[in-house]
């Protein structure tokens, strides 16, 4: 298996990133996708290359072999994390400020509340990156979610993304596990069931991913085991009260799910 294919596969598993130029930095303005995606990609590339992620340390060139090795190391740690399964019945709610620092939390709430249009809003994106730079752990998880949506088109963006993955794993932020789990699910055969709860979902829910708590909690609340059902209700309530944007987001999701079941 050649180096470029191996690297591309690893980064795909790590959240949908495909670093197309394993050994050469490419101009971030080269965008082969739809015209309306060009500006969004340029904003993301600019943010990751021009100091908005300097809190991760100095940016440097990294060759494809080292990038693949570091990505594989993170993936190995994620597998170890999820292998040490915890009992979801023991779930304890922790709001963002109880998990870690959350300066400029209103910027994260505004970003989440504006999705998907937030991805095209320079001010919201700039404020999200600023909150991440100030140490807001939830903002950092959202920055990773944003970066994982598109292929990394240059060396610096790929390097910063792997650095961010390493930071999230080291700090036990389950959003990383949830995003990687979704990427793995999408690479399987057949059409993935978005509602199916996986080990990565459970791990993420137990480690402060509020979307995962909402998803897993709804499933557990239907359990015949009273301990699991109670834990599920706690998860759903915790997720809804984490941020106003989450509450609105989950209300819409539940309303849509209810409508689809009646059709």
TrEMBL record:
Residues 30-50 are annotated as: Disordered. The keyword Signal applies. Residues 30-43 have a biased composition (Basic and acidic residues). The keyword Signal applies. Residues 1-20 form the signal peptide. Keywords: Signal. This is Secreted protein. The lineage of its organism: Bacteria, Pseudomonadati, Pseudomonadota, Betaproteobacteria, Burkholderiales.
